[in-house]
Amino acid sequence: RKEVEQDPGPFNVPEGATVAFNCTYSNSASQSFFWYRQDCRKEPKLLMSVYSSGNEDGRFTAQLNRASQYISLLIRDSKLSDSATYLCVVTDNTNAGKSTFGDGTTLTVKP
Amino acid sequence: DVKVTQSSRYLVKRTGEKVFLECVQDMDHENMFWYRQDPGLGLRLIYFSYDVKMKEKGDIPEGYSVSREKKERFSLILESASTNQTSMYLCASSLQAQPQHFGDGTRLSIL
C-alpha cells in the first residue's frame, strides 16, 4: 500500500462545476500537509497548505481529518485554467522535512 | 520569492557517461531534494540533504550519488548513465516543516 493515495482520475468537469479530490495517508506521524498543482511538463507548484481547522483560498478549500488520515481539496466554480494535476503532499517533520507525494489527480475543465 | 535553479532544462548523454545535474537555491534553505518523475510513477525521491555535507537515501538511490559542499548547492551524479535513467529530474528545497519549492526540472535523455 502506498503511503499517500489519491484517486488518479481523470476528472472531466464543465466550467463552473464544483469538484473534490481526496487523499489518504498512512503515516500517523505526518504533521504538515499541502496541495500542489502541476501543469503538463512543468514543475509542481504549491497551491496551498492544509491546516487542521480547514482553510480557504478563493475558490479553493482544503480540509484535514487527522483521525481518519484524510485530506481533501474542493474547487468551486471551476475555470479552464484549473486543468492540471493536483498532488497531495504529506510531510514527516521529524525526518528532515522529507515529504511523500501522491501520484496526483488529473483534472480537465471543459468549456 | 524562492528561486531554485537547475543547470539545464534539457540534457542528452550517452550510456556509461558520468552525468552531473546541478541545483542552486537562493533562500538559505536547510533541506534539499532530488526527485525523478516518470509517467505513471509520480515523483520518486532519490536523495535528500538536511545540511551541508549531509545526505540521506530516498526511495530509489541506486545508480545515483549526491554532493552538498555548500548550503545553496546540491548536485546529483549519475555514476554511469544507463537508458533506464532517462527521466525528468526535479530539485527542490525547503525550510524545516515548510513546503518544498521546485526548480524547472531537467529532462535527461540517455542514448
For this entry, give a set of tags:
heterodimer; A: 111 residues; mainly beta; five-stranded antiparallel beta sheet; 11 strands; B: 111 residues; three-stranded antiparallel beta sheet; 12 strands
Q: What features would you describe in this structure?
A:
The complex is a heterodimer of chains A (111) and B (111). Chain A is mainly β. Chain A contains no helices and eleven strands. With 111 residues, chain B is mainly beta. Chain B has no helices and twelve strands. In chain B, strands 2, 5, 6, 7, 10, 11 and 12 form a seven-stranded mixed beta sheet that branches. Classes of the chains: A mainly beta (111), B mainly beta (111). Chains A and B meet through strand 4, strand 5, strand 9 and strand 10 of A and strand 6 and strand 11 of B.
- What percentage of residues of chain B falls in helices of 4 or more residues? under 10%
Largest sheet of chain A, in brief, is: 6 strands, mixed
Indicate the structural class of chain A.
mainly beta
Number of strands of chain B: 12
Number of helices of chain A: 0
Order of helices and strands of chain B: EEEEEEEEEEEE
- The share of residues in helices of chain A is under 10%
Please compute the radius of gyration of chain B using only Cα atoms. Answer: 13 Å
Number of E strands of chain A: 11
Q: What is the oligomer described by this structure?
A: heterodimer
Nearest-integer average pLDDT of chain B? 94
Q: What is the 3D shape of chain B?
A: globular
Low-confidence stretches of chain B: none
Shape of chain A: globular
